[in-house]
Amino acid sequence: MGPGHPPDAVGRLGPGFHEGFFRLGLCDYAIINARHVGQADRRSSRSFKHGGVVLIETGQEWIMATYRVREDRALLKKRAESIAIGLTVGSWTEMAVTRRAEVKRHAGIVADIRVVEDGAKNEVIAELSIAYPAANLTATAAALLTTVFGKLSMDGEIRLVDLTLPNAWARQFGGPRFGVTGLRERTGVRQRPLLMSIFKACVGLDLAELTAAYRDQALSGADLIKDDEIFFSEEYATPEQRAAAYAEAGRQVYETTGHHARYAVNLTGPVGALRERALRLREAGADALLFNVFAYGLDVLNELAQDPDVALPILAHPAVAGALYGSATHGIAASLLLGQLVRLCGADVAIYPSPYGSVTLDKPEGERLRRYLSVDNGLKRVMPAPSAGIHPGLVPQIVSDAGLDVILNAGGGIHGHPSGPIAGGQAFRAAIAAVMEGEDLAVACQRSEPLSQALDHWGKT
Ligand code: 1AE
User: Fold this and answer.
1) Is the domain of 151 the same as that of 198?
2) Ligand 1 test: best mutation among 338, 390, 409, 415, most atoms within 8 Å of CB?
3) 159 and 208, same structural domain?
4) What is the pTM of this model?
5) Of 129, 148, 171, which marks where a domain is finished?
6) Is any atom of ligand 1 closer than 6 Å to the C-beta of 229?
7) Is residue 265 assigned to a domain?
8) How far, in Å, is the centroid of ligand 1 from the Cα of 388?
C-alpha cells in the first residue's frame, strides 16, 4: 500500500473497533486482527476467519487517502483520528450526534500509521492512511478533493500522496471517451509513438502567419499539432478561425504528401461558454481540445469529456499544477493530479513534465503517474505525453520509460531546429523510426540529415 501501489490497497486499521486489516474496493471487508476481534464492531453482519485474521464485512465501499505528515511521534494517532473524524462526521470538539449509529457509519477510519523517517527531537515523518466511506461523496472531483484534502490541506505540514478508489465508484466519473485506443483510431497511428508539435510563438501572429506555421508543422510529419497553452488572445485570430484555416491547410498537406496531421485547439473563454465553443470548434474542423484543467477545474474537464456532443479527444495540460504539487511537504502528489485525477475526469492525453527537459518531474513520480494512467480500473487508458524541453535525442529514453503508447510532445525541440520546424519534425520522426527498428540514433542519423543536425545541436541521451 502507499505511493506506488494505486490499486487493491490493503491497509491496517486503527485502534478500537477499527483495528486490523481491510481490503478496499474489491471485496469491501474490514479485516480485523484476530487478537483485536473482541474490540470489533459487532454491528457488522458477518465475520469469519481467513488466514489468521478475522474478516468483517462492512457492506460499504471506502476511499482511502494517504498523507505524509511531520508530527510528534506521541501525537500521530491523535492526528490520524482527528483527520478521520474531522473530515467526516465530527469536529475538533466532542459532539453527541456522532454516537448515533446512522451517523457513525459515515465516520472515517484510521487505516494505517507508518513512521517512514525519524525527525528532530520527538518528531517523525509518517504516512497516515485514512479510509472514508464512499457514501459520503458524490462522484465529482469537488467532493473527492474537498473530503480527502479540503481544509486539511491548510493544516500545517501535510501532503496527499496516494488515493485508492474502488473501481465501481471511479467508473461513475466516466473517464476518457477515447483513451489510448480511440486516439490511435482517430489519428490512424496504430503502433509507433506519436509526435505532437506545439505552436511556439503564437500570440501576436495574424491568421496567415499562424496558418503558415501550422502548414510547416504538418509538413514536418507531426501527428498532432497543438496550440500553446498560453494562447488566449483572440485579437488577430479567433480559435474558430484558426480551426477552419488549419483544417484547410491540413487538407492541402494531406493531398500533397499523404500525411494527415490533427489539430488540438486551446479551449478558452468563460467557463459557461466552453461547451458552446467546443461545439463550434468541432464544427469548424478542430480534431481535439487542449484544456488547462487545473486553471479551469477537474469537474469542468469531466463535463466536457462526458458530453456526447463535444466528443473530441481532450489533452489535459498541467499548467498551474505545480502550485499544487511543487512542495515536497505540502500539496498533492503530481502523480495523483496529472495521472489519476485527469484520467478519472476524462482526459485522453495527460501532458506532464518528463524527468529530462527544461521543466522536470522526478522519475519515480513520473512512473507512478503513468501507472495511474494505465492501471486496470474499468476506465479507458490515457495516453501519456511527457513534455517540456523534449528534443529528438531524448526519444529512445522516453520510449524506454513509457513504452510505445506515448506522445513525444515538443515545441522548442521542433521550432528551434537549426534548419527550421519542418526539419525539426522530420528529425523526431527519424528518431521514432529508429527506435521502432531498434537502431541507435548515432546510426540512424547517417540516413537523416535533420536528425544528425538535431543531435549535434541538442545532444543524445
Ligand atoms: C509540461 C508542459 C510543457 C509545455 O507546455 C510546453 O509548452 C513545452 O514546450 P517545449 O517543448 O519545452 O518548448
Assistant:
1) no
2) 409
3) no
4) 0.89
5) 171
6) yes
7) yes
8) 4
In total, how many domains does the chain have?
2
pLDDT of 34 > 50? The answer is no
Nearest to 105 by CA among 140, 134, 64, 67: 134
| From 352, 387, 428, 457, mutation site for ligand 1 pocket: most ligand atoms within 8 A of C-beta | 387
The 10s digit of each residue's pLDDT in 183-222 is 999 999 999 999 999 999 899 999 999 999 999 999 999 9
Residue closest by Cα to atom 4 of ligand 1: 388
Task: State the amino acid at position 141 in one-letter form.
Answer: A
Check residue 147 and give left, alpha or beta (phi > 0: left; psi -120 to 50: alpha). Answer: alpha
Q: How many whole angstroms separate alpha carbon 44 and alpha carbon 244?
A: 61
154 & 212 share domain: no
Q: How far is the CA of 275 from the centre of ligand 1 (A)?
A: 26
Which range marks the domain in which residue 120 is found? 12-171
Ligand 1 atom at minimal distance to the Cα of residue 415:
13
Return the residue matching grid coordinates 500522496: 161
Does ligand 1 lie within 6 Å of residue 3's CB atom?
Answer: no
User: Cell 478508489 belongs to which residue?
Assistant: 165
Catalytic residues, by residue number, are: 151
Residue 289 shares a structural domain with residue 200: yes
- Cα 49 to Cα 19, 57, 97: the distances in Å are 15, 12, 33
- DSSP assignment string, 329-389: SSEE-HHIIIIIIHHHTT-SEEEEE-SSSSS---HHHHHHHHHHHHS-SSSPPPEEEEESS
